[in-house]
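Input chain follows. Return structure tokens only.
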Amino acid sequence: MRYAVIGTGWIADSYVQGAARSGNWELAAVCSRSRETGLAFGGKYGVSAVCTSPEELAADPSIPAVYIASPNCCHYEQSRMMLEAGKHVLCEKPVTVTPEGCRDLQELAEKRGLVYLEAIMMLHQPHLAAVESAIARLGRIRAARLSFDQLSSKYPAYLRGELPNIFNPKMATGSLMDLGIYCVYPAVAWFGVPDRIEAAASFLPSGADAACSAIFGYPDKLVTLDCCKTGQSCLGSEILGDEGTLEIRSISQLTGVVLHRKDGGCETIVGEAEKAALMGNEAADFYRYIAGPASSREQYRRDSRLALEVSRAMAEIRARAGIRFEGEFR
């Protein structure tokens, strides 16, 4: 199936490589504000068609699907434009800034008979079932710590006095929106919507959150979530049960997963994996949801329901932590 990509950053590169590995997709066009940048990106994949505006892409009837990897502040408007043009949309996280925006676009997609999906790798990996099976072996779970702390490659530029998008509140970004969402997704997917949420954040002078922590309260457990873009963690995540502990090295990719039994033994549940392969699984499901709606309806509805629940939790965390953006976003 022919598709276009909006954005030319590293994440778009990873997705295009993964989509090619899936065998289901043909990159047909690149959308970039700069024709030169678009040509340079497309040239790596033998693609010369470049759109310099989303409007130009929306008007092309030969492209039925779009992968959106633009700044967060653009997600809602660009997704709406593509859906209104009759195109299926896979949008990078966070799919929208607000839950109201998420629900609005989900309803639009449903009305038009289109697929509208948030790009969350963990949901589309074949090893997800093995991880969830290991969680079921942990016994009574009273606590979990889900962590994604990664020193941003853009942080040195920020320290030099520049303002990269990721540290600019006008772009609806920061640690929570970029990294924290990868912790919120498994928390809600595995333990449900929390009864209560507490949160706090530390801020850079730009107004962006450098780090954010949240506690999800449930009747029988506490789940702690933390994210940081100004430092690098070496610990990963853990889920603690009275029969064992599940160590998760990468919560975003759901790799490096080891079950530590209470008898002292351990089992490797998931090893490491190439990023392109993980993105390829995501691209394969996007295609499957489009090409086989009847057979994939249950999983697609699960993904859509989860996206909205996560968006609501993210909004509550921002409200509790005082994370605000400069501008009105959906």
